[in-house]
Amino acid sequence: MQHFTSVYDLPNLTEAINTAREIKNNPYGYQYLGKNKTIVLIFFDSSLRTRLSTQKAAMNLGMNTMVLNVNQDGWRLESEMGVVMDGDKPEHLREAIPVIGRYCDIIGVRAFARFESKEDDYTEKILNQFIQFAGVPIISMEAATRHPLQSFADHMTIEEFKTRARPKVVLSWAPHPRALPQAVVNSFVEWMRQTDYDLVVTHPKGYELDPRFMGNLEVQYDQDKAFDGADFIYAKNWSSYTQYGEILSKDMNWTVTAQKMALTNNAKFMHCLPVRRNMIVTDEVLDSPSSIVIDEAENRVYSAQAVLKMILEA
Ligand code: CP
Question: How much is the pLDDT for 98?
Fold first, then answer.
């Protein structure tokens, strides 16, 4: 595998999940792969899980890790091509990326949607500059439109907890005070569509996702009907794709409650974290045995490790 930016980069999805599960049982079994190899993790945006789990994954493989918080630790970086650089950004990505590439063997990049231009976000302007100019493999640690490391861990977690071969997996919009990107949900839908799970997406009108991720999947606009018989409830907020970046609703009737979970087939509750308590989901659900959000976060290590292993072996 050369780069990892979506599920389509994996040579074989089933084998990738099996590799991550094998690594979970034997995390230090491939330490020889990373000897004298270095990964640089570049953050344009904040992180807790992705930063620590990817570092841990690299360390489990024997790699050296370096972390750069762009705009905090380093120079502010210009990403526009052809501009007169007379503003507050003294360095261009065009130089910064290949320089970083000379210092390492793999680069991980986190660069969220900026919500300044739908086109810039949905053409992955920053991530693609890394792929074009780095000269080393690139791992997306959440880009403008996808969060593949999260989706990998989500899939692994469903495989661990499912109680029937074809579980019903429900992705539900839930309210949030701020406008959030669509990356986690785009990626989740895209990834789940590569499985034979019964995937149902539910959200208020106006929150339709990009058809390139949804394919021919239909939306169930009635959250209660969507929850009926579900094995997994994956809650997440996202801002509107059609009215790009706008908050169209903060309807607390979409918050995941114990009453709504009672409609399900004793479903497990999932969320990528960080989660806003009593906005996205009530304390009662999040603190119940149904919640598997901590297991899901733990699996971020092993899924990242599987990705790094595949790149190191290429
Ligand atoms: N789920 C996730 O990506 O968490 P962080 O934003 O804390 O990395």
Answer: 98
Task: Work out whether the CA dihedral 207, 209, 211, 215 comes out positive or negative.
Answer: negative
CATH number attached to the domain at 7-146+300-313? 3.40.50.1370
Q: What is the pLDDT of residues 102-137, one digit of tens each?
A: 999 999 999 999 999 999 999 999 999 999 999 999
Does residue 57 surpass a pLDDT of 90? yes
Read off the pTM.
0.98
Any ligand 1 atom below 6 A from CB of 194: no
Where do you find CATH 3.40.50.1370 in the chain?
7-146+300-313, 150-297
CATH, domain 150-297, list 3.40.50.720, 3.40.50.300, 3.30.1330.10, 3.40.50.1370: 3.40.50.1370
CA of 272 to the centre of ligand 1 (A): 7
298 within ligand 1 shell (Cβ under 6 A): no
The candidate with the shortest Cα–Cα distance to 41, out of 149, 187, 146, is 149
Q: What angle do CA 190, 280, 231 make, to 5 degrees?
A: 55
How many Å lie between the centroid of ligand 1 and the Cα of residue 122? 20
Taking the CA of residue 45 as reference, the ligand 1 atom at the shortest distance is 6
Q: Say how far apart CA 182 and CA 214 lie, in whole Å.
A: 12
**CA atoms of 189 and 166, how far apart (whole Å):** 16
Q: Is 65 in the pocket of ligand 1 (CB under 6 A)?
A: no
**Mutate-to-test residue for ligand 1 from 41, 43, 50, 112, highest number of ligand atoms within 8 A of CB:** 50
pLDDT tens readout for residues 205-218: 999 999 999 999 99
Q: Phi and psi for 131 in degrees, rounded to 5?
A: -60, -40
Q: State phi, psi for 285 to the nearest 5 degrees.
A: -75, -45
> Is any atom of ligand 1 closer than 6 Å to the C-beta of 3?
no
Which residue owns the Cα nearest ligand 1 atom 4? 49
Interval between CA 12 and ligand 1 midpoint (Å): 25
Res 72: pLDDT:
83
